[in-house]
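queue> pop job 88
queue> type: inverse folding (structure -> sequence)
queue> payload:
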């Protein structure tokens, strides 16, 4: 769970043992938190612990709440990300309305845009990929645009562009060239697709780690200027032994519950 606010970010990413996993056709529960499809909505109930972080909190803090995702557009199939077909991406709900309630937020929560996807594969990402960029945003014409770049360790490049609309359905498109964004504090590079003659901007930095960055960026696609949630992942950095030693500080592990 990652919640961003002016008063300080809330971050919880706890690894748990197999005894904490419970799932069936309509639900997934890991420890005290879980996802359920109910009445056409995806409902996430969470009860986690926010980690200490400099300038935000000096001790762990429990928090809980619920997210309700009401789909406006759904997608019914996975998309292959690598030539060998070992890694799949599924934008399950590319466009939705979201309602969040959380006891640590100043106003108790908010309502706005929502999105739900998932990635899965038969072996770790760093074994097959060098890096990737991903971005998703809602354009002024109410179309959700998603672009994906994945560079495999073999040098093969996968570039995807999709437009999801509640009126026109789903269409693929060829994205314009990828334009570099400023490197993160840790040196992670990344870029976002942008039409010629327009310079993309990083509006807000949300995560900046030794192997991953998440930002809100402004760019131009299909003739429309839009804000996109953007992610860059450096899988070579992720595989670095020093980075591996740092992971437990952000991803504590609870084996028995």
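queue> result:
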């Amino acid at each position: 769970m990652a919640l961003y606010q002016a008063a300080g970010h809330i971050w919880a990413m706890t690894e748990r043992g197999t005894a904490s996993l419970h799932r069936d056709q309509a639900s997934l529960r890991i420890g005290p938190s879980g996802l359920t499809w109910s009445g056409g909505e995806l409902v996430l109930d969470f009860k986690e612990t926010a980690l200490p972080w400099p300038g935000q909190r000096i001790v762990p803090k429990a928090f809980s709440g619920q997210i309700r995702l009401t789909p406006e557009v759904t997608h019914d199939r996975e998309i292959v990300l690598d030539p060998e077909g070992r890694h799949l991406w599924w934008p399950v709900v590319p466009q939705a309305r979201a309602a969040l309630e959380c006891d640590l937020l100043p106003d108790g929560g908010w309502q706005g845009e929502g999105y739900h996807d998932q990635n899965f594969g038969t072996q770790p990402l760093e074994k097959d990929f060098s890096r990737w960029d991903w971005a998703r945003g809602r354009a002024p014409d109410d179309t959700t645009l998603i672009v994906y770049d994945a560079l495999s360790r073999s040098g093969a490049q996968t570039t995807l562009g999709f437009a999801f609309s509640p009126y026109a359905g789903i269409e693929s498109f060829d994205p314009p060239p990828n334009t570099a964004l400023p490197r993160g504090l840790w040196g992670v590079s990344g870029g976002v697709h942008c039409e010629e003659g327009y310079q993309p901007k990083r509006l807000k930095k949300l995560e900046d780690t030794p192997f991953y960055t998440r930002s809100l960026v402004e760019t131009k696609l299909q003739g429309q200027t839009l804000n996109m949630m953007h992610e860059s992942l450096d899988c070579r950095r992720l595989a670095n032994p020093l980075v591996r030693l740092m992971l437990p500080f952000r991803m504590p592990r609870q084996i028995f519950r």
